[in-house]
Specification:
The protein is α+β, with helices and mostly antiparallel strands. Helix content is about 40%, strand content about 20%. Strands 2-3-1-4 form a four-stranded antiparallel β-sheet, sandwiched between helices.
Length: about 130
């Protein structure tokens, strides 16, 4: 059971099943971001930051209405259907349920934002975060 309440801020991660890629190309990334935009509007979220890696993603989300699980079911479910249809696949795209960690506002939130956007740098994919699409 997840702890959900209005105003909660969560660091969310979701990894590809068997650590396989969840994004094959820019079309997949753009589709995911379109669905995320829909979810943010529909569930009244604030998205403080995100990073889409090849086989997982990170997000910092504030849920004004304490509805994280509903929004995440929509996000991962609709994206899975889209991804599978486009790539002629069936089954799971994501490895189990998403992970979420409650975050306190303040300096830790700022540090976590840095962590999320610097993920591609630490992975050796780029030298500077600004160069990662």
């Amino acid at each position: 059971m997840r702890i959900e309440f209005p105003g909660a801020i969560s660091h969310i991660t979701s990894r590809g099943n068997a650590r396989l890629p969840i994004f094959e190309d820019h079309h997949d990334r753009n589709r995911f971001l379109s669905i995320l935009e829909e979810v943010v509007k529909r569930y009244n979220w604030l998205c403080h930051g995100y990073c889409l890696m090849d086989n997982h993603y990170h997000m910092l989300v504030e849920t004004k209405e304490g509805n994280l699980s509903l929004g995440m079911r929509h996000l991962n479910g609709v994206y899975t259907q889209s991804f599978n249809r486009r790539h002629d696949r069936v089954g799971h795209v994501f490895q189990g349920r998403f992970k979420s960690i409650l975050v306190e506002q303040g300096s830790y939130l700022l540090e976590l934002c840095r962590y999320v956007v610097l993920n591609p740098v630490r992975a050796g994919m780029v030298k500077h975060a600004g160069r990662y699409r």
